[in-house]
């Protein structure tokens, strides 16, 4: 029986597609790069922009260019999140229920300060014992660094812990950590893509987020 749940953020707890899409397109346009499609942006939302922007750019970016592009994105994202960042229907209530029975954490591809700001905006930050962003790990998803950090710091048992995410990168990360996983279908990646990564569970609505036997 699980005692600990580690969540992804984007596409799992919150719908940030529109904010990310607008900010990415504005940043790429201002930087003179080919503007990626919504499909591209959505697919790569599961990994940090330090990796995804290089993958979406039609040319190789220097470290300085990538830093400038990321700075533009973060500025535009902060402007748009107020309007377009929303928690999924029923998630607040579900987190409140889970908080009574499990230790809850977040491991995300966002930077930690942005992650905390977003959770606070959505009024759910108090449900989580700790949140880990991409700046807290040496290796990004699908590396298991974030999960392993949580397991070690809080002395959690793998067989009592599950990771929940919406992208193939999330399930790969859980597999790399030798951890059970739950794929959710309301985020970035479709059911067939998620199935190929062999998650322990696949769920289709927020109210299925309970793992009591």
UniProtKB/TrEMBL annotation:
Q: Does the keyword Lipid metabolism apply?
A: no
Q: Which GO terms describe its biological process?
A: DNA repair
Instruction: Tell me if Lyase is a UniProt keyword of this record.
Output: no
Which InterPro entries does the annotation name? Answer: HAD-like_hydrolase_sf (IPR050155), HAD-like_sf (IPR036412), HAD-SF_hydro_IA (IPR006439), HAD_2 (IPR041492), HAD_sf (IPR023214), PGP-like_dom2 (IPR023198)
What does the record give under GO molecular function? Answer: phosphoglycolate phosphatase activity
Q: Name one Pfam family in it.
A: HAD_2
* Gene3D superfamilies cross-referenced by the UniProt entry: HAD superfamily/HAD-like, Putative phosphatase, domain 2
Keywords (A to Z) from UniProt: Hydrolase
Record's GO cellular component terms: cytosol
In terms of NCBIfam families, this protein maps to:
HAD-SF-IA-v1
Q: What name goes with this protein?
A: HAD family hydrolase
